[in-house]
Amino acid sequence: MANLPEASPASALLNPRLRRCEGYNHSDWAISHGPRCLGSGLREKVGAMTNKLTEFVFERIGVPSYNKYLNLASFRHKLVSGNVANAATPEFRRRDIDFQGEFAKATGQSERLKGVLTDEKHIPLGSHPDSAPDVKKTPVPEGDLNSVDIDQEVATLSKNELLYSIGARLLQRKFDGVRNAITSK
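-> structure tokens emitted (185 positions)
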């Protein structure tokens, strides 16, 4: 099996020698054909090496940080949208997060102490990167319907949308740089 000829997915469907690869799926031929035709031990080593290489490349260009940034911006968008939707709800308390502080916490740049997880099932404590964002609720001022100021919420929403689109555009440029590095000669 080691010296199978190079083939396209169409020829693999016609040639029984090429279909012998376990788990063959013609839709992901280019990615999986080689490693799936190897012995199970060698396939695991190739898979582990590919995962480590992918982790290295993605961590090197900052994908995890951009991912956390975009997730926080999306979470904040949901909070602020909820505030806008409940602008006329009596006794509703405005909710928001400290975006800069939560991003620092998520990327491990916070000055606060963080709990150490000894088991993946433990709940993250303190300033741990995996802990949920701290949602702050603004109390309802005396005599007001609720604590939502619609003008402030719309301004926050547009600022957050701008931050999200900038983060997405920067991440896209990182991927474009990796694509150029791979395809350049």
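The helical segments are 9-14, 29-36, 40-61, 63-85, 99-106, 150-183.
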